[in-house]
């Protein structure tokens, strides 16, 4: 994940008295990965699915909180009041975030179901999440959601080679493609709304990696999202 998201996480953490999770690592993913799996080999399908579920659970909650902030407001899972910015459903960022949010929930539920198919009765005890979204501007909310999608795309590219089962490789590649489309749509919206007036960096339309999307190591991804996680 880029420095921008890490900086945002630090600001959120400074404002909280709630206990934050220590940085997660791929070698030993504690809850909110739903399972505590020390000592499993790096290529174990269960561990890779668990890693992906951790990210999708966080991302699903981010979309929920983003919609609260952009529209009518509400309360997040840690009890923080999120005042709404009063945007209507016809605004492009609200419209597409509304379209994408249930897809991310489907990703989460698919991965949870896949793990349940491998292990009877996984412990469904996800952490709660705080993104400091109650103070973010419209532009900052969109930038955070876009950065999460970009990170998700690169996270799947980094994790797919660790899978061993063909069906899971196919499914993960399909999810990665969806994350990439989300990134493209949100980038277009960000350019449309804020390219000329916002100090928020606008995502590039191409990478500098020979035209190929970059990848992110699982440990790097988990370390960067951990500050958003609040212990139960």
Structural account:
With 232 residues, the protein is mostly helical. The protein has one domain (3-230): Ferritin, CATH 1.20.1260. The chain has helices at residues 3-14, 45-70, 92-118, 138-159, 166-194, 218-225, and strands at 73-75, 81-83, 128-129, 229-230. The strands form 2 sheets. Strands 1-2 form a two-stranded antiparallel ribbon.
Question: What's this entry about, in short?
Answer:
The protein is mainly α. The protein has a single domain (3-230), classed as Ferritin (Up-down Bundle).
Radius of gyration: 17 Å
CATH-derived architecture: Up-down Bundle
Q: Segments where pLDDT lies below 50 for 5+ residues? A: 1-21, 30-43, 199-203
What strand order characterises the main sheet? 1-2
State mean pLDDT (0 to 100 scale).
76
Q: How far apart, in Å, are the first and last alpha carbons?
A: 24 Å
Number of helices: 6
Class by SSE composition: mainly alpha
Summed up, the domain count is 1
Beta-strand proportion:
under 5%
List keywords for this structure.
single chain, 232 residues, mainly alpha, Ferritin, two-stranded antiparallel sheet, 6 helices, 53% helix, globular
Element layout with pairings:
Layout: H1 3-14, H2 45-70, E1 73-75, E2 81-83, H3 92-118, E3 128-129, H4 138-159, H5 166-194, H6 218-225, E4 229-230
Antiparallel strand pairs: 1-2, 3-4
Helix pairs in contact: 2-3, 2-4, 3-5, 4-5
